[in-house]
Design a protein that fits this description.
By secondary structure, the chain is α/β, with parallel strands linked by helices. It has twelve helices and 18 strands. Strands 1, 2, 8, 9, 10, 11, 17 and 18 form an eight-stranded mixed beta sheet that branches. It has an eight-stranded mixed beta sheet with strand order 5-6-4-13-14-15-12-16, sandwiched between helices. Strands 3-7 form a two-stranded antiparallel sheet.
Length: 436
């Protein structure tokens, strides 16, 4: 559909977050040439965090968003604030990237605390609850993985600890798990409210945001960059690409090598009707964020209206909402008998960026051109801290002081085929989940 000024408009999906988050006065689309110091492509968490930290240091910044702030993964995710990655472990990160890897591990370790501190400092109303994050083991054998992760992160100063079965039962209100890794710095937020709050904080510091402004390409002209949109050009000294899984969603020619370096995987989110006080007294009474050790992940947390916000994955997306209502409803009822058969008020989806090695990839795409891709399902806390580091690099901080393990862009071989078959990996995950 088109907006009032004739540009293409992309409405938010029919998510819980879109239904309950206070609306934001939309920024205009770009209509005429603009000169700036830094142009940020993408109005999600990492782009807005980069812009905010640059503006705090007095820099002139323009943010170009092809749809609206938080339209992509930043406004659609589950909202869990988790200070780890899904598959890249601290030892492996440091082995690959050396001292830069060690700094990056420290960034991940502190990323949840940094997010909640930023929310407090900027007075962003995003239903923030720093109630902790728990990764329960779904089989007794998976406790070995929990032990290794606790040991690795505790050795690096993370305030995590191993939870035994009895404590896990009390924490979850369920006997379906066997203990696991607990980190008190985690929690959850309303992600769309956070994105809109970051945008407001940026604008209050002079950042110019243009929505419904698709960037179609970039070009180095002399000592500066020209960022092309459908209606005008932005000339900038520095460019930041912060589009992750949506890099080619609105403009396929924007950064084809970056888009080909990851696989966008469809992730489904769901919200139940509000739980009663009696149910909440036994089901996750401490309101922690939960995501377990299944490959076919089980994850859930409360929102501010006492709904359980959860989700699932499908190999074939056809009729996905109704199928997930049955599948996830049965899982929740089995784990939490007090729920009986939960009713879901909202089901929605969005893409997450999965890299071949499950590492986030940070790139120098040219002189004074930074970018990154590959949240691998843990982009909330990570993206905000990466924005801070990217701002530091742009402001001239030596790279050997920053948590930015830079690598070259490596497109995935036969990436188009990988996109089509990626959902089938879920069958392998499910097979592994049932085995020790």
């Amino acid at each position: 559909m088109k907006s009032r000024d004739g540009t293409m408009s992309h409405p938010h999906p029919n998510s819980l977050w879109a239904a309950i988050t206070p609306p934001r006065a939309p920024a205009p689309a770009l209509q005429e040439p603009v000169e700036t110091e830094i142009a940020v492509i993408g109005g999600g968490f990492s782009g807005l965090s980069t812009a905010l930290h640059l503006a705090k240091s007095g820099r002139k910044v323009v943010v170009l968003e092809g749809a609206s702030v938080g339209w992509g993964a930043s406004g659609r995710n589950n909202g869990q604030v988790i200070p780890t990655l899904t598959a890249a472990e601290p030892d492996a990160i440091e082995a690959r990237h050396g001292e830069a890897g060690a700094r990056f591990v420290a960034l991940i370790r502190d990323s949840a605390e940094a997010l909640f501190a930023l929310v407090r400092d900027e007075a962003i109303a995003c239903e923030a609850e720093q109630t902790g994050w728990f990764q329960p083991a779904h089989r007794p054998s998976r406790m070995k993985l929990s032990e290794k992760r606790v040991e690795a992160w505790a050795r690096r100063g993370a305030p995590c600890r191993l939870v035994g079965r009895d404590e896990a039962i009390a924490l979850l209100g369920s006997k379906d798990w066997h203990g696991g890794m607990y980190n008190p710095t985690g929690g959850h937020i309303n992600p769309l409210a956070l994105a809109r709050g970051l945008a407001a904080a940026c604008e209050a510091r002079g950042v110019r945001i243009f929505e419904n402004t698709r960037v179609t390409g970039t070009e180095r002209v002399g000592p500066r960059w020209q960022v092309r949109t459908e209606s005008a050009i932005v000339r900038a000294d520095t460019v930041v690409l912060a589009t992750n899984a949506y890099t080619d969603a609105l403009a396929p020619a924007l950064a084809p090598k970056v888009a080909a370096s990851l696989v966008p995987v469809l992730s489904w989110q769901m919200a139940t009707e509000p739980l009663s006080a009696e149910q909440r007294a036994t089901i996750i009474p401490g309101r922690q964020a939960i995501s377990d050790t299944h490959g076919d992940l089980r994850f859930f947390r409360y929102d501010a209206r006492n709904r359980l916000v959860t989700g699932g994955a499908l190999i074939v997306p056809a009729n996905g909402a109704e199928r997930l209502r049955r599948l996830v409803g049965a899982r929740l009822a089995g784990a939490f008998p007090a729920l009986e058969t939960p009713r879901f008020s909202h089901v929605w989806n969005g893409y997450i960026g999965i890299t071949e090695d499950r590492f986030p990839h940070i790139h120098r795409l040219g002189p004074d051109f930074w970018g990154w891709a590959g949240c691998n399902g843990r982009g909330v806390a990570l993206a905000l801290s990466l924005g801070r580091e990217l701002a530091g690099a742009i402001n001239g901080a030596p790279l050997d002081t920053l948590a930015l393990p830079v690598s070259d862009v490596k497109p995935i071989a036969f990436q188009g085929l990988a996109r089509r078959i990626a959902p089938c990996v879920l069958a392998l995950y499910r097979w592994r989940d049932g085995r020790d």
